[in-house]
Design a protein that fits this description.
This protein is of the alpha/beta class and 344 residues long. It has helices spanning 3-10, 12-26, 31-38, 52-66, 76-81, 103-112, 128-132, 150-166, 171-184, 189-200, 218-232, 268-280, 308-311, 313-326, and strands spanning 44-49, 71-75, 91-96, 118-122, 135-138, 208-212, 236-239, 256-262, 284-289, 296-299.
């Protein structure tokens, strides 16, 4: 096993604490942009990134939409070439790149040439994104050498605080909640690792895995599929739970695993009937959050829908590692890609 992956995974509670402490300080520099936002000079928020950075943005954007704020999440590669009309002087652009050097992000910075206000979210303040942002928010994750774990959850933490500010919420209350969550989560890590290993014994080498999440957990579904692709090297897909009955259910058969994010929330009643049907069709179901009918359950603390994406991805990190071991891969390593993508 790659010890680096598990060390970085276990560092997440400490990273969250550092991120929360630093973000409180950095948010002060956001006030001039917030004032323009309040006066209506800035009328829309556009989040963009690639990979896990793109997925994490969905949590904050949905929160803004629910507060009546016009917010969009667009892959940086699409924003660069096909959705540029979203970017104008009335746009607050939030660029997210863990490295700060992702090729599409750098080219977007070149394209807007300081004419659009940019909030940069990155782990490297000396990167292209770090140096060229109007306001810089840093993840404080330290060096990450393997598949993204701590940088992803730090992004979710940071965007939660940013979302609190943009929606006029109580930042100090959010800070305390995040600090308490980071401290309480430590004792869950060994339990999640053991349950992940147990879960994959049912289907050690799946032919295909699907990750389903509704609402805020859409971010977890997209990222869960990405983590397992990178770590265990087999086909996966991430989508909203509502999409699954509209065609994708046809792939269910023995050998297929469906991971359902089931944090308690407004769609509770929809989870178990789908889980039960998938199990009846021969698929393996793993529920993360609440137990579901027909599923192997990996329970998590009930933090509510808004904060669920912060913790529900961690069991998937362990699942990806366990599947990688079964398939003979070094955990957290890349076969063809690299940590930072600099070629389109």
């Amino acid at each position: 096993m790659s010890t680096g992956f598990f060390v970085e995974l276990a560092e997440q509670p400490d990273v969250w604490l550092r991120c929360v402490e630093q973000t409180q300080k950095e948010l002060i520099a956001l006030e001039p942009l917030l004032e323009r936002f309040r006066r209506g000079v800035l009328k829309r928020v556009v989040f963009t990134g690639m990979g896990g950075s793109f997925a994490a943005a969905h949590t904050c954007a949905l929160r803004l939409v629910e507060h009546g704020i016009s917010a969009f999440v667009v892959e940086a590669s699409e924003l660069l070439y096909y959705q540029q009309a979203l970017i104008d002087t009335e746009t607050l652009l939030i660029l997210i790149s863990q490295s700060g050097y992702s090729v599409e992000i750098v080219r977007l910075l070149d394209q807007i040439a300081s004419t659009i206000p940019v909030i940069g979210v990155t782990n490297d303040p000396d990167s292209a994104l770090g140096r060229r942002s109007t306001v810089l928010l840093t993840l404080q994750a330290g060096v990450e050498q393997t598949v993204s774990t701590k940088t992803y959850t730090a992004t979710v933490v940071l965007l939660h605080l940013l979302g609190t500010v943009l929606t006029g919420g109580n930042v100090q209350e959010s800070v305390v909640t995040l600090q308490n969550t980071s401290e309480s989560i430590r004792s869950w890590l060994p339990r999640w690792e053991a349950l992940a290993v147990e879960a994959i014994q049912i289907n050690k080498k799946p032919t295909f895995a699907v990750f389903l999440g509704r609402g805020f957990s859409r971010a977890s579904a997209l990222t869960g599929a990405l983590i397992v692709k990178e770590t265990a090297k087999f086909p996966t897909e991430g989508m909203t739970g509502g999409q699954f009955r509209h065609g994708p259910i046809e792939v269910v058969e023995p050998g297929v695993t469906v991971v359902m994010f089931a944090a308690p929330g407004r769609t509770d009643a929809l989870h178990s009937p789908l889980s039960e049907q998938i199990a009846h069709l021969g698929g393996q179901v793993i529920s993360i959050g609440a137990p579901l009918a027909g599923a192997f359950a990996i329970e998590t603390p009930d933090l509510g829908e808004l904060l669920a994406p912060l913790i529900e991805i961690i069991p998937v990190q362990y699942l990806g590692a366990a599947w990688a071991v079964e398939r003979g891969f070094k955990v957290g390593s890349f076969r063809y890609g690299q940590k930072v993508t600099v070629i389109e």
